[in-house]
Structure formats: C-alpha cells, structure tokens
Amino acid sequence: MDLPTLRAVRLPRERSELVIGEGGAPLGGGTWLFSEPQDHLTEFVDLTALGWEPWAEEPDGSLTVAATCTLAQLLRIPARPEWPALSLFPRCADSLVASFKVWNTATIGGNIALALPAGGLTSLATALDAEALLWTADGERRMAVADLVLGVRRTALEPGEVIRSITFPAAALAARIAFRRIALSPQGRAGTVVIGRRDGNGAVTIGITGGTERPEILRFPAPPSTADVATAIDGIGTWYDDPHGAPDWREAMTRRFAEEIREELR
Q1: How would DSSP label each residue in the chain?
Q2: pLDDT-based confidence at residue 16 (cuts at 50, 70, 90)
C-alpha cells in the first residue's frame, strides 16, 4: 500500500542514531506497516540497517533472537536434543494468518510489538518465559514479554523505545511442551492458543493467547489437578470479543484445551 504521508526512511548505522521522534516509527519487515494507511507517520527508522545477527546461543544455554530476525530465519535454527521446545517455533509461525512467503520478511519483534491477541510470536515468547531487551539511543531495560504486551495494540514500550532482542531461557527450551489452537475456519485467525510447558523441576506453565486481550500465564509449582487448572482459568477476565470468536466460546475452548494439556504433561 502507498503511504503518501511518508517523507523519509532513515537507515541508522549505530545505536546512537536510533532516535525516533514525533511522526516516526521503527521499521522491521513492514508487513503490517505497509498493509493499511499510516497517515500519522512521516518517517520510518529501518532497524534492519543495524545489521543485527538473527540469533545466537548464549553461554548459559539460552537463545537470543534479534527483533529483526524474520520468521524464515527463526525456523532455520537447527534442532538439538537439549532444546525440545524448538518444536513449538513452527507451530506458532503456522498459527499466523499469513502466507509462508511472508515469513521471509515478517519479523519476531514486529509481531510482538504489534500486540494483537492472535500474534503467534507473542504466544511463543510468553509460553517460554522469554524476556525482551528494549533499547533507546542511550539506554536499555529488560522486561518479560508477558508483561510487555498490555492489551490489544497496547504495549509497555516507552516513546522512542524499540525491541532489540528476545531471549528464550535454557530451562524453558529444555521443557516438555504441548500445543493446542483453534479457529472458526481452517485458515482463520486464532480463536484461542493454549501452550503448556513442564519444566525439569516438575513446574507447569500454561500460556493463553489469541482468546484473551493480553497474554495470560497460569503457573503451578507441580503438575496441577483438574480443579487447579479450572480455578486458575476462573480468574481470567480478559476474554476477547471480535468476529473471530465470542468470549464464551473462547473461554470454553481454552478450558477444554487446558485440561487436555494438563493430562498430556502429567
């Protein structure tokens, strides 16, 4: 789509040039920015010009993925026995309403920063307790992705702040995982996505996205009972309502999937 109000695309070469002023926006893959009018924008700051490596294994065994890493690059991370949760990466990518051809452009940082309930990379990052590194030209801070996404199209990003990278902890990558997703049509936007994780110490985490306005994370120090899971879901008050699913249907399917996952991970 043409963006007639755009006047410049700036290419920063170093961090000090990462200044985003009024009317500016960071540009990663641009798959959403160029999909609809952006009449409030006059400048893009192209983050890909900074040349960040797509991904790297850290000394502690965690995995750091650059915000500009495309879905295609993400899915080319080699499988390894100590990271069984990597099998979740393609399942979350497949849950996006996008052609596989878009994977060569769409970025993990852009999908999370957009903060849509059906954001497949938000589902991935929150289920695996990933942490975001947030940058400005002269400062940085870290925040759990589950806390970064506040609601529909709302994040905790401050003005001028961008996502630099997402780090997946080694313990989460080593966990057993279970995945459930449903939509009203075979290729439709997710009605709910429920992802379970059982860590080596027996703790169980269940992440709920797609059907809620923001990520909901249920944590249990040991494998939970049916009643434990049901009670935790009772406390969720952010069920989403749009043409892709009514709140009561989303809640009912989430309860069903959470119980299936509880059984699978028991």
Answers
A1: ---TT--EEE---SGGG----TTEEEESS-TTTTTS--TT--EEEEGGGG---SEEE-TTS-EEEETT-BHHHHTTSPP-TT-GGGGHHHHHHHTSSS-GGGGGT-BHHHHHHHT-TT-HHHHHHHHTT-EEEEE-SS-EEEEEHHHHEEETTEE-PPTT-EEEEEEE-HHHHTSEEEEEEEESSTTSPEEEEEEEEE-TTS-EEEEEESSBSS-EEEEESSPPPHHHHHHHHHT---B--BTTB-HHHHHHHHHHHHHHHHHHH-
A2: very high
